[in-house]
Amino acid sequence: MMNTVHIDLCPVCANNNCPETLICKDHLVTGELFSVHRCSKCNFAFTQNFPCEEEIGKYYDAPEYISHSDTHQGFINSLYHQARKISLKSKTKMASKYSSETAETLLDIGSGTGYFLNAMRRKKWIVTGIEKSETTREYAHKKFGLNIQDSEYLFKMPDRTKDVVTMWHVLEHIEKLNDTMANLHRILKDDGVLFVALPNKKSADAIAYKEHWAAYDVPRHLWHFSPDDFKQFAEKHNFKIEKMKPMYFDPFYIAMLSEKNKGTSTASLAGLFKGSLFFIQSLFNTRRCSSIIYILKKK
């Protein structure tokens, strides 16, 4: 029998009233059903009874899981690679723009196949990566010559040694949510910057697709944030949100996957059309975007 993690208290506000609000399917690997619970006080949501860290690996074991496999297979994944080329430029510019003039050290957590780390190293940053998948670490080393550490490295790093820490769609995967955030505060320099990209459960597409929304991605996504509850979570760990920036490509990618989850026969076309509508909404209101980059500094 699989070991699972049961959440009794909301990880953000410690409220004990967190009823089930959705039942979502693992569309990627197993077809299993998982329940999503929501805090009645702060509205933070989480996947209940998710597999523990030692056993969740099998749920990532699919060629379609692109951040680990780097696959180009299929139309949706091909589009992902084109979008990644553009977003890499945006992320590298952002890291430089919001950090201090003397910043030089960068930690990327959940560095996957290493594209962002490699791009930052080319810009003369001193880079370190953390990635829990051994196979993916080996891939990044073979492709880019990057030496990436395992997950426990975060808890062994010295205090106030990093100018920039980045987590591009990673925090929602990490079992030790509060411990991780506390250690991010500890290792950042006092003028350091933390970038956290997260799916937005209050986005236009999340509201439209409900349990079929691809960014619930159970059980790989453990935590489901919106701008309001992430602000509360950040402040709990002595961070303040300096800025929120929309991830403009995500409405298209997530809509295509969500249409596939629904069983739509023309998922890619339907997703591109609906993704365009969601994208337009995000132009006028960042809080409606599928995913948001939060730029944080220490209080």
UniProtKB/TrEMBL annotation:
TM segment ranges: none
* InterPro entries named in the record: SAM-dependent_MTases_sf (IPR029063)
**What processes does the entry annotate via GO biological process terms?**
methylation
* One Pfam entry name: Methyltransf_23
Gene3D superfamilies from the UniProt entry: Vaccinia Virus protein VP39
GO molecular function (one):
methyltransferase activity
Keywords attached to this entry = Methyltransferase, Transferase
Domain of life where this protein originates: Bacteria
Any idea what this protein is called? Methyltransferase family protein
User: What's the source species for this entry?
Assistant: Dysgonomonas alginatilytica
